[in-house]
Amino acid sequence: MTVKDAVLQALEQARGTRLSGGRLAEQLGVSRAAVHKAIAALRESGLAIDAVTGEGYRLASDDDSLTAAGINALLDTAVIGREILVEPSLTSSNTTMKEQYLGRRHGFTLFAEEQTGGRGRLGRTFVSPADTGVYMTILLHPTLPLSHLSFVTISAAIAVVRAIEQTAGFTPQIKWVNDVLMNGRKLCGILTEATIEGETGTVSSLVVGIGINLHPNPAWPEEVQAVAGAISDFGKPPRRAELAAAVLNHFEDVYALLDQGKKPELLEQYRERLCCIGRPVTVSSPAGRYEAECIGLDENAHLLVKTADGQVNALSSGEISIRL
User: DNA-binding region at which residues (predicted)?
Assistant: First the structure.
């Protein structure tokens, strides 16, 4: 860990209170000059650190800057998010990742302060201006069979629910496949895209895009306002760096279950967070719409629904969607 990272970690752990330069130097085993240099570098990277003579440095408790250093100070991962880039504006973090960064190592994460052309599932627009949410894309180079790739999206949904529970103090649910909801309002969108090797047909990389609404979005169209929600609607929104780090921490934990072949354990975590089990749903498929009851999941994370005549259908996320 560099001196800059160590100083930031200490300030994060004492956020809102002051630490003297001498105490930081002693705690980290470096000179006061090294601490002063680290503070200057952190301020230059966008962190709000003030100082009072005789009292020390303080990272403002209400500072909501989103920086690689700030996120890294809160990470508890081995791989995921250990290389981070934060950009002030991108058309789409997924698009930029695919165009520029597929050669980066497994776990590289790209953040955008805003997205001017964010995308959701089925080509939908994900409106994402600055200061209203957290928008990230995680790069993976998986060693998984093609049949398991949908479980990566499931892992991301579980990670978001756990991160919101940890940082905002309430527990949302998941609407199959990957919509994170609170009281029926959508807080998060997740879009996973694969790059396939043409000759072998194998997956060379996955990009997992995650967009979380922290505050109501003034750019939401009227039809989106009817279904969208934000963390601030249900609790005190966490700092963006805090939420971002929590998502990465939990994603590494959940993804490890898949990587280690513990699919049943992963499915159980997913199943217990689903909001549709035992409820009536409207199924939309290429063949039309029909009413059914959601009765569970199969071992491939397909949703099982029972129609009025007793027929049980297994729904694939790529083909069919549901409404509660």
Answer: 21-40
Give strand pairing partners of 193: 207
Instruction: Please list the alpha-helical segments (H only) found in 169-322.
Output: 222-225, 240-259, 263-271
Residue with tokens 């929590």: 246
Cβ neighbours for 91, distance < 8 A, ≥ 6 positions apart: 115, 116, 117
Full pLDDT tens readout for the chain, 324 residues: 789 989 988 998 888 889 999 999 999 999 999 999 999 999 988 888 999 998 999 998 888 989 888 899 899 999 999 999 999 999 999 999 999 999 999 999 999 999 887 655 545 556 677 788 999 999 999 988 777 888 999 999 999 999 999 999 999 999 999 999 999 999 999 999 998 876 666 788 999 999 999 999 877 777 778 889 999 999 999 999 999 999 999 999 999 999 999 999 999 999 999 999 999 999 988 778 899 999 999 999 999 999 999 999 999 875 556 676
> Residue 312 pairs with which residues in a beta bridge?
306
C-alpha pair distances (Å), 87 with each of 24, 67, 92: 30, 9, 11
Q: How far out from the chain centre does Cα 193 lie?
A: 15
> What is the C-alpha separation between 265 and 253, in angstroms, rounded?
12
Neighbours of 186 (CB within 10 A): 17
> Which three-class secondary structure state does DSSP give residue 20?
coil
Q: Tokens for 172?
A: 């949302």
Tokens of residue 207, six digits: 């990009």
Instruction: Supply the DSSP symbol for 81.
Output: T
The answer to whether 285 touches 319, Cβ cutoff 8 Å, is yes
For residue 149, report the phi and psi dihedrals to the nearest 5 degrees. -65, -30
pTM exceeds 0.85, yes or no: yes
3-state secondary structure of 152: helix
Per-residue tokens: 143: 């060693």
What is the spatial distance between Cα 72 and Cα 319, in angstroms, rounded to a whole number? Answer: 38
128: its two tokens: 């994402």
Binding-site residues for biotin sit at: 92-94, 115, 119-121, 186
